[in-house]
Amino acid sequence: MPQSYIKRILDARIYDLAVETPLDDAPLLSERTENNVLLKREDLQPVFSFKVRGAYNKLLQLTEEERARGVIAASAGNHAQGLALSAKHLGVTAIIVMPRTTPSIKVDAVKRHGGKVVLQGDTYDEASAYAQALVAEKGMIYIPPYDDPDVIAGQGTVAMELLRQHPAHIDAVFIPVGGGGLCAGMAAYIKFVRPQTKVFAVEPEDAACLKAAMKHKRRVVLDEVGIFADGVAVAQIGEETFRVIKDCIDGVITVSTDEICAAIKDIFEDTRSIAEPAGACSLAGLKKYVDSEGITGQTLVAVHSGANTNFDRLRYISERTEIGEGREAVFAVVIPEKPGSYKKFCSLLGKRSVTEFNYRYSDSGQANIFVGLQVNPYKNERQELFETLTKKGYFVVDMTDNEVAKLHIRHMVGGHAPKELDNEVVYRFEFPERPGALYKFLDKLAGRWNITMFHYRNHGAAFGRVLVGMQVPPEEREEVEQSLRELNYPYTEETDNEAYRFFLA
Question: For residues 443 and 483, is the Cβ–Cβ distance under 8 A?
Answer without folding.
Answer: no
